[in-house]
């Protein structure tokens, strides 16, 4: 079981809303198919599970055994002499760790996996080091931030730190180490002030190189440095959400004026990271002091307005669009404390991203877990604890039997839709099973099969 995360700001903020209603997610078979595709060797691909054909269901026990066998082979391949094989094994583990919850399996093998990752971080090339750092972050998430994750973090933190500070190391590897350091500290050692302060200071030493000098001039960045600065700043801002009020006041006074100057950076992604961090810091400042005001707020708002309406033709069109969208949100929050709420749906539940703090936390997990973030929100106790979702919801067989995901195959452009009734117990009356259907003009006509039928709510039978 994960340790209590009472200090997590993601779930403790008053007014946070979550729901138990949303779209039906992908099935377990869909989530587990085609991962670990490079386990056996660098040149051969296999799939963990083969989905049944003709409506046949894969036996869960057999599927679990096959998955574990593939995972064991991947772990063995981490010790292979071939760098290509090791890299393929790391990629397979990354896919598996991000798409499934494997706590029981990994608890028994965490030391072996940690030793292999340590070897890759110390002796591997840049690509292997980057992959190993990412897999280690996923391992900490899989171990649910418990004592096992904390123990592994204490062992690998010095290695991540050394690689992050090594100017001769691959930029990609250093970026991955920055993200891993922030995430692993957040889930594994957040309750220990010393680890938190050390990690904050280390990440600060990276992105503060982009701060203006005494004359107020921004330094000329070296190739790749803006990406590294962005990764370090985002990891740092994740950890800032854990800081006590006394520490926050110091950080606000130190960093807010300097970050405002960094809005003039030539790199669009770094500008966006800076803008989002400024919004987060202002939000945290307002949380601890209702009278909090940004120094030179007029100058900041003018700069944000300029970025929110930037039409410079020398910037790429997509960059301009992305920048304008983000900075409009930042500006609205600074001026009116107005945040654009986002609803994340997974399974039959949803989580509301209603603050810059929760957005930073969610984005950090999404960056590591990628498309698997919804699966972990649904089943991983650590993420459910952080976002205040409670224990995983177990649906009964009648609910699982509804083939809701099949409805998604109907073209969204269709003008006819059908409402499907949920069979969730009445004690969970706020759960519904949505689909992209509303009522037919004629209940006896199958929209999917394009023929007459007596099937009303279950028209898939005739397809």
Question: Could you explain how this protein is built, in words?
Answer:
This protein is mainly alpha-helical and 463 residues long. Among the domains are: 65-188, Leucine-rich Repeat Variant (Alpha Horseshoe); 192-338; 341-392, no CATH class. The chain has helices at 9-12, 28-32, 60-77, 83-99, 103-107, 110-123, 126-142, 147-165, 171-188, 193-207, 225-240, 245-262, 268-288, 297-308, 317-336, 356-369, 373-379, 381-386, 397-401, 404-407, and strands at 18-19, 342-346, 349-353, 445-446, 451-452. The strands form two sheets. A three-stranded antiparallel β-sheet has the order 1-3-2. Residues 380-410 form the Interferon-related developmental regulator C-terminal domain. Residues 1-67 are annotated as: Disordered. This is Interferon-related developmental regulator 2.
